[in-house]
Every structure is written in structure tokens, then in C-alpha cells.
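tool_call: predict_structure(chain=1)
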Amino acid sequence: MNLSAGKSGNLKEVAALFFKLGAISFGGPAAYIAIMHRETVRRRGWLDNQKFLDLVGAVNLIPGPNATELANYLGQQRAGWSGLISAGVLFILPGMLLTLVLAWAYVNYGALPQTDWILYGIKPVVIAIVVQALWGLGRSGIKGPLTAALGIAILLLYQLGINEIALLFGGAAVFLAIRGGHHMLRRGSSGALLILPLLKTLPIAAIGATAPFSPAALFLTFLKIGAILYGSGYVLFAFMNSEFVQNLGWLSQQQLLDAIAAGQVTPGPVFTSATFAGYLMGGWPSALLATLAIFLPSFVLVGALSRVLPWLQKTAWARAFLDGVNVAALGLMAGVTWQLGRAGIQDIFTLALMVTALLLAFRFKINSAWLLLGGGLAGIIYRMILI
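tool_result:
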């Protein structure tokens, strides 16, 4: 499929899809990626499983919110540079707006609204969507006993608590060495090093520990976090705690916890916690400034990576490295799915909801939006009956 053809005519299609995905994506990066896979590969056929898996592997190599970066990349592939910007912005927008509403309610009423009932029904459906994506991507990424063994090893090591970034790069390096690329590693040409020049294009600010509040300091601090952060929402929590609670004193510990919670209960990337925190520190202008700053590096990095990736895919050793990254990413995704299952399957009802969603997804190919909406409504109705 020629993804470059007709890119300008596809911009509206990209905008509509990613606004919808931003409004229905719950459950963390693995779930967001699964929903994007379902919508762009299975339903619309924009690209095949292998190409999608290559993009997932590529965005895992750079810092920032991987799901947003994947949205950027898919938009760029479908509708050019305007597609990159519109896909990313519109994927972020619904969650950002809802987070702003939560922040306003928090400041005016002192607490976050109750969302447990909705999430109770949504979580099992998210697990089903991720399992379906793993099945499709695994059939493309697992190409033999070697890749299967590596994926299982990554999954087991992740469950033992090994750092996900170490597993990602380590798994890729092991696969490259086994495939005969060890001489390239000795010469320092690993895929990780190819990413470092991209990081140097981003401004990273050093903010003094005693700096008074200012919009410029807020912007630079969030820009730094967005440019260097790898990992999950828990890593984001650690960075924001260090900068805004311990060093600058602009937030309390409880306010930060509530900001992270707001990012998790709203759709889209958990990085919208920055929107909530910015609002607490300086109202609407600071909320928008914080959001721009933390997401801006991902747009720059994906734009740079899109120039490099086609060359990497044509180079034998780099292709092997990317294949290793893909397998490691699948192992990590499987590990996250297990964790989601432990958190989301709480009783017989949620187990039945997950099985039903799996059946509807695999057998009847029901749209993800309807599955998630149905799960949320089922959770509300079930909890109301119990009361």
C-alpha cells in the first residue's frame, strides 16, 4: 500500500479518527496502541501489521508519551506533516479538555469527581482490546523460535521488575548480536546511539531549586520532562514530584497525586496530568502552557525519526535491531496486559465482561468505541443494581 498517495485528501480522515480515539482511549499506552491497531490496521487497512509494529518499535526508542508519538507517526504516514500535527493534537485534545474541567472542579469543590463505576466496566473491555492487538501483532512480530523465546524472556524479566527501557534496548541488542550483528555493536552503532543526536535537538532547561513561580520556568520544566522521560505514568510522577514538590515547592504531594489520578481517569495520554498541575499552579494559561511544553518534544522527535526510519529499515543490521525492538515491545505489552488483567478482573462480572468483549472483538469485529461505551454502561448499571 502506498501510504504517501493522497495524503492531503486524507487529512480530514486523520483528524476525525484521532479525535475519536483521544475521546475513547482508556487503560494506558498498551491499550491506546491496541485501539490504534484495531482502527488503522484491522478496520481501515492504512498499513499492515509489520509496518505498524515497526512504528511501535520506533516510538519506543525515543522519550515521551509513546501512544501520542504513535498517533503523530500514523498521521504523518497517512497525511504528511499536517497529518502528524493534527493526529497528535486531536488525540491529546479530548483528554486535555476533560482534565481542565476536573481541575476547575477540584479547585472549586476540593475533590475529584467519582469515576470508579465507569472504569469498573471499561477496564475488562480494554484488556480484551489489548489481547486482540497482541494476537495480530504477535503473528507478524514472532517469526520463529528465536523471537518467541526472546519475547517470553522479556515478559518474564518484566514481571520480575527489570526496568522496561533496559529490557527494550537489551532485548534488541541481544537479538542483533545473535543475528550476526555483534560486530556493529562493538563499533558503537547500536540503534540506541542513533537516537541520541535527535535528543540533542531539544532544549533542556535547568531550573533552580529556589526559583519563584513564573510561566517561563513552568514551560521549561515541563519541556525538560517531555524531552527526557521514558516509561510509564509512574515515571512521570517521579519527575513531577522531584521538580514541582521537592525542588520548587509549587505543588503539594496530595495535589500531585490528584493530578496523576486525573490523567489516569480521563481518556488519552496520562501526560495530561501536566494540564491539571499547570491549572493548580497558575490557572488556565499555565494549564495550556504546561500541556504545550510536555507534548512538544514528542512532535519534534517523531518528525526527526520519520526521516531516519526509512533508512534504518533498508539497512540489514538496523533491520535486525528494529526486529529485536519489536519483539521486546511485544513482550512488554504482554507484561502490561497481565498487570491490567490483575487490576481489572476483580470478580465474575468483570471476567464475563472481558470474555464477552473478546468474543465481540474477534468474532463480530465490533468497533472499539462501542465496546468501551458498552463496558462503561455495564459497569454503571451493575454497580447501581448492587446499591
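agent: Residues 8-193+298-386 form one domain. Proceeding to next step.
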